[in-house]
Amino acid sequence: MAGLFTTIETPNNIKYEQPLGLFINNEFVKGSEGKTFETINPTTEKPIVAVHEASEKDVDLAVAAARKAFEGEWRLVTPTKRGRMLLKLAELFERDIDILAAIESLDNGKSLSMAKGDVTNAAGCLRYYGGWADKIHGQTIDQNPQTLNYTRHEPIGVCGQIIPWNFPILMWSWKIGPAVATGNTVLLKSAEQTPLSALYAAKLVKEAGFPPGVVNIISGFGRVAGAAISNHMDIDKVAFTGSTLVGRTILQAAAKSNLKKVTLELGGKSPNIIFDDADIDNAISWANFGIFYNHGQCCCAGSRILVQEGIYDKVVARLKERATQNKVGDPFHHETFQGPQVSQLQFDRIMEYIDHGKKGGATVAVGGERHGTEGYFIQPTVFTDVTTEMKINQEEIFGPVVTVQKFKDVEDAIKIGNSTAYGLAAGIHTKDVNTAIRVSNALRAGTVWVNSYNMLSYQVPFGGFKESGIGRELGSYALENYTQTKAVHYFLGDSPF
Ligand code: ADP
């Protein structure tokens, strides 16, 4: 039986105390059923440590703690003080950046430099929402001289948050920052593949001075703890980031239980479009970064590169050359760009797609195989000779696999760009302002990058059109996900009735 804490030494010789329990009411506790599960190091395929697993009953306990805080102590904390707690939390993230980044590299497999970027952005996000905490207000509305109408933007209540494994600490901050800034309380479930950084950050929540029950963090499985959250009758809102398949389940569970508010940030199959007049060096660099960053495990990955016919051959040659230059290997090695995929399951799924592409008649221009013999490493893979309908061109692969397709003109680019069920993001590379604006207006995507890719910022909203999601995260838009508007009609005269 696992204890509640253990000492871990990471491959870059960082020794720290790792919490293993469920974080409920500001304390680490064991799971009520006494179950634990192991988290695997994707670089070595060996277990790192076992953490306590949340059951349905533990979800109830965490919801009760969050409810008590929401109705009690948290209500009395002023918005300014809420903001200060978030600012303090951001500071603690920055203080412990080396620990948090090493945990991410160990548990998720992303390179240490990328992991540090994630922690820096997570701290920035918490600080950004800390700044918003005392700037949330409604309107006064002049209806007639006898009535004072005003609106209040009130917190929704207890929020269940379910996050994925591709950006564990960053998703933690995207979820907790706006929820807490607006006065809600939270029960967050990390992904079963990557529970460690969320628990370490829970320790920092307590140190930052949040009252018990405001932020509760549990480790556990989707079909147990995740389902318990989305079906819960006393959770007022659920926010989810993950696959479109699970997103549908969550929306159904919300509908069948208490109609809790739902926001979903789901999958994508985003086009990255390179026009004949693009700056080729920059376009190649962004296209490579667009798909291979985070090993292709980005919902907004530019996984379909569309190239105008005049430069198609040149771009394919350059992309092949560029892809083979990405250093694949140990996430703790300073030159590494691409680490392992997160799990055996993900590795198998991706290899299956690669196999499907090969058998379906697409050409492997580069890659297409496992990298090495240990760890879930996959070679950066570029497919050419693809058609729009192919499975590898329609479904989210969530790995280092990209297709390259030829197009004729602006209309053709828009048509192919919009040809999937997803609508999360898109990239356009051109020097022509008219082309950039025309195409970005016509693409059905929540984010369009012009002459860049994957550049997210906590000040700017992010979310999907079509089957890529509901609602927007980040920026001031995320505040709308965590507040509900109350209209107050204050009548000043005598009753006319
Ligand atoms: P992936 O397939 O990439 O692992 P998922 O969408 O399955 O992505 O997982 C994202 C998050 O959703 C994880 O925290 C996971 O535990 C959770 N999850 C999975 N299945 C369910 C479910 N049926 N209900 C609620 N949450 C779930």
UniProtKB/TrEMBL annotation:
GO molecular function, one term: aldehyde dehydrogenase (NAD+) activity
Cellular component GO terms, alphabetical: mitochondrion
InterPro entries attached to this UniProt entry: Ald_DH/histidinol_DH (IPR016161), Ald_DH_C (IPR016163), Ald_DH_CS_CYS (IPR016160), Ald_DH_CS_GLU (IPR029510), Ald_DH_N (IPR016162), Aldehyde_DH_dom (IPR015590)
Gene Ontology biological-process entries: acetate biosynthetic process
Protein EC: 1.2.1.3
Active-site residues, as the UniProt record annotates them: E265
Annotated pathway: Alcohol metabolism; ethanol degradation; acetate from ethanol: step 2/2
Domain of life: Eukaryota
Catalytic activity: an aldehyde + NAD(+) + H2O = a carboxylate + NADH + 2 H(+)
Gene3D superfamilies: Aldehyde Dehydrogenase, Chain A, domain 1, Aldehyde Dehydrogenase, Chain A, domain 2
Segments forming domain Aldehyde dehydrogenase: 28-488
Keyword line: NAD, Oxidoreductase
One Pfam family of this chain: Aldedh
Family under the similarity heading: Belongs to the aldehyde dehydrogenase family.
The protein, known as: Aldehyde dehydrogenase
Native organism: Aspergillus heteromorphus CBS 117.55
Source lineage: Eukaryota, Fungi, Dikarya, Ascomycota, Pezizomycotina
